[in-house]
Please model this.
Amino acid sequence: MILVLEKDITREQKAYIRSVLFEAGCIVREMSQEGQSVIGAVGKGNMDIEEINALAGVEKVVPISTSFKLVSRSMHPEDTHVQVGDVTVGGERITVIAGPCAVESREQALSIAREVRTYGAVLFRGGAFKPRSSPYSFQGLEEEGLKILAEVREETGMGVVTEITSPAHADMMMKYVDVVQIGARNMQNFELLKCVGRMGKPVVLKRGLSSTIEEWLMSAEYILSEGNDNVILCERGIRTFEPYTRNTLDLSAIPVLKNLTHLPVVIDPSHATGIREKVSPMARAAIAAGADALMIEVHNDPDNALSDGPQSLYPKQFGQLMRDIYVIAPVVDRQLDYSYLDKARAVNHINTVNGKGKEKTAFLGDFGTFSHIACSRYFGSKISAVPKPSFRSIFEAVKTGDAYFGIVPLENSLNGSIHENYDLLLEYDLKIVGEVTLRIKHNLIGQPGAKIEDIQRIKAPPPAFDQCRQFLQGHESWELVPVNATAAAIKMINEDSAAAEAAIGSKEAAELYKMEVIEEGIETDPRNYTRFVVISANPIKRGNRKKSSLIFSTGNQPGALFEALKIFADNTINLVKLESRPIHGKPWEYMFYVDLEADAEAESFQPILSALKEKTDYLKLLGSY
Ligand code: PEP
Ligand code: MN
Model:
């Protein structure tokens, strides 16, 4: 049941309510919903709702109508984020777990781990105890396999996931791995569920081969009721009458689960389809449908794999899939981060070297702006975002060490480049260390309960008006009031608290300032993206850099630009952007801004840079990321 508490409840009243619930044998969770204190209580006995309702300080008691309680959204309205070392499952960044079905040898596991990490996987999977349909099939390397997994974590920094098949293995699992997996065949092995509940380590709970969503959630309830909330639900296909795939992947489970439970959802298209060619299409669909994570089987020699070879991707195919996910994720307000682990390491490093509080990122405007959203999408919640009034003040803050990172927009898919930042990149000696692409979704935001008919005045920055032109043309009587930033506009209408005032901005800003979205997605072209770059005075160490940015100028003679670009062509380097900007003080002379798909800081790139130096008057590497 959910107990909604009175606003002016005293500490003593609350303590008494908790003691009554504890004595009745309840599991008690305290939370806050829309500013009001709420207690969730789940117990075995038949508690008298009337009696609880009559306790001083209780406003009302709402029974939880579903059979699962602790996993239900009503017990915990916010999404649960499961933390595995530096990796968060759930939230804005997509988590990708990859690796072979089974650990077969040290060389096999390490080789696959190195490859999937390069392509952006953040957790490594591999079975050491394999529950096989046939007793004559490979059963796993057992403890030896777990030791190899621990070595993979040591070498690559990826947390490791493996299946537990018996409570007798709990101590071994505690020693060697980061996440335990309950396999589909064990979803209703209640002793095993209770065991992983007590272990407290994050759990991937696979859906049973022919289990309903309710049965699956009841299994998760077993784990939570033992005090372990770190459960990730894994849809891996269910048995149907369809023989063309190994199982049928139930992607509709994603929105169903998102409604019923607060637990994160991982999709395993490998066991679902059983066929290599079907894995990537279903993985892409899973991200589009709102999955928090993917679990993909990858093998370096699938033809000779000891289990599940036909469904395992070749590492290169996995890399291709990751590129697709990278592109799809921003469409559904998510992010795939190739340098997730390196960045987490860098942030932890800053914390240890400089002490807490130095891990700041400077961004433009107020909390709730798209720059702020880009910042949390890139860094998660590990870094504090510091608002700055101008782009130049962001560069200054990073230069002086006042902030370790800065985040600035470089280009918008509709409006083009933000030239001021290109000029600042040229002027300041800072490095680009990362990038993040954000889909800019504009919403009409007003007072809670305000109706579209009440609106007379809209506040927003002029580019937002431009991007919502078509929608605004349908409301010609509205007065358009230009302001500096979307979040500032929302703050203003919050302070004015007039139903006639509305603003344009992000859903996040509306929530932050307790305003309401009146109309969602009012931008004319939904393909509205802004690419932000992260700047720092110190490059993020190690890592996996796919892209580089540089600036150069050439002499003013025929073929000068061609000569420079030919170097990229000769080395089969793909350019993804080429733009010219006037050079200050030299009318009609230009700098060229280039983005290319290569790690220009790598040793192997140095001859290319030297060749480029010979063909240019000026060359500056802005960074590889
Ligand atoms: C596995 O992940 O390798 C596995 C055996 O999965 P499932 O339990 O879903 O069949
Ligand atoms: Mn498998």
